[in-house]
Amino acid sequence: MHMYTSHTCAHDRPSGCQTHKQMAPETAGSAYSGQSCNHFFLWLLPPRDSPRRPPTPPPPLPAPLGLARAPAAVRARPRRSALARLRARAALPAGSRERAGEGTEPAAEGWRTRLSAAGSRAPSCGSGCWRRWPGGASPRWVAESRGAGAAAGDPRESLLAVSMAGLRARRGSGLRLLALSTLGFCLMLQVSAKRPPKTPPCPPSCSCTRDTAFCVDSKAVPRNLPSEVISLTLVNAAFSEIQDGAFSHLPLLQFLLLNSNKFTLIGDNAFTGLSHLQYLFIENNDIWALSKFTFRGLKSLTHLSLANNNLQTLPRDIFRPLDILSDLDLRGNSLNCDCKVKWLVEWLVHTNTTVAPIYCASPPRFQEHKVQDLPLREFDCITTDFVLYQTLPFPAVSAEPFLYSSDLYLALAQPGASACTVLKWDYVERQLRDYDRIPAPSAVHCKPMVVDSQLYVVVAQLFGGSYIYHWDPNTTRFTKLQDIDPQRVRKPNDLEAFRIDGDWYFAVADSSKAGATSLYRWHQNGFYSHQALHAWHRDTDLEFVDGEGKPRLIVSSSSQAPVIYQWSRTQKQFVAQGEVTQVPDAQAVKHFRAGRDSYLCLSRYIGDSKILRWEGTRFSEVQALPSRGSLAMQPFLVGGRRYLALGSDFSFTQIYQWDEGRQKFVRFQELAVQAPRAFCYMPAGDAQLLLAPSFKGQTLVYRHIVVDLSA
Length: 711
Description:
8 helices, elongated, mainly beta, four-stranded antiparallel beta sheet
């Protein structure tokens, strides 16, 4: 692109012309500024010694009324410039001018005489005046000649002079308009050239350049910083928390230093929007913990320093969003090397990030140890918990799960509802649902048994006798099969079903003064009395133990020490083997195996409950558990972990966990179960459930869950 400057000469200068000079692009920038522009403007103006030019004439006046209009052919003739027309007329011979209707020499002389006469009557107007053109035509600009030579000259010259004067007047008016426009443009450029550059915004507490900011004693993250800032430093800030998205208004930030402040909390997504940030330093603050999502979005971060804070732990995978992190500094923190930092030890083994040596502040066994050198086997970070899973809105005194036709069921004794309630596990909803009920006005135990693919339920009642019901798949209901001899079983308290040498048996513990604990055997189409075991001793509980190929039945009593019976295959009966002399009375008796050893758990209503181990010929006590008011006690195994539930009528239920190293139970958890009468472990698919029937409240269902403390 080329720029041009014009030098316009006055009409009376020797040249009487306009000249244009072409300028190179590299010099075009100065053509409109300063002295060059003034020079350009001065050349456009007429010289001071030239005659004053008249103003631009007004538009032509309309022709007088009655004046004949020119023919259409004449009106349609292309219009030529005035100078061209004058020159053409001057060049025509006299005869031609006559034929053209332009007059002869006398006519021209007469016109000059009339013009002089008109001029003598009008006052002088300088170099030119407005006159009426001869013949009543439109007004023209007529120049008055100063001197006789002009009046006596050739008419063609006079006509040409007059016309040239009009053209110069018009051209002078246009040049003045162009000059004024150019002057305004030059003045505007001069003002803009002298205006100082705009200073970027900067808060009062900061010092800013075009792309950096250094802030001291700021009360918040500065908001009105230049958007081009790529480096920001905050020192001695007067606020303690960095909110979410605190720096999102600085998307080009590459360096951020937050050292020597009093920050205690950095919110989730605090650095969101900083996709170009490469260096982040948060040193010498009071930060105790960080969120898992603190550094989310920092895809370009290569250097991170959290040195000299009060960090005691770090959430798992906090550094996962930092794809290209190359340097990490965690020195000067008080790391507690427990399960919360186990993931960090694993991460340090596999990461390519350079990490300065960091040391443990606690626990004492790891104090001053390098985190990078801690053995993973030292971290035992998997624990478990029992959480409330379902509440059954009724009390119960026994719970027995069973499988029938590939479905899972639960039988509950509900004396308050006068029924044995059967619930079915819903694998879709993962809940226990109502299924059926067996009438039982004073049920204390409902024992299901599946014999030869047939379902039977033994219903033990305190009053009105006990019965055996059979499930009829054709009518899909329970029907009574037989009665249990009320002379033998007067006041049942517990039922135990088992199988010996292919035969099915169940035993009933009788707690009355006149009754006897009795054994019944299945034969073809019913259960028949097989043996009276223990009369007149107010038996409370039964436990069948099949170990070492020697079936045993242990009977607990509230009036004497528990008695051990061993099965005699020759007599097809249980034979008394001995007593557990370490416990004078027991409300419940249960057993479990740990390794090669067999143990008994005996709960007592008054006094401590006992844990005994079988020594080959007798039991020896290994642990005493406080259990005032205990009527229920149940050991169970969940996924390789052994627990013990111990209930009480005066306090909450205690859950103990077996310590394999110490060979003892340790207190694990407390459950808010009031007056439990039994505990029952029931696996239901992937849900491991613990049921706690309560005599005074609702029946609660707890779920066993596994918790990873290193997460």
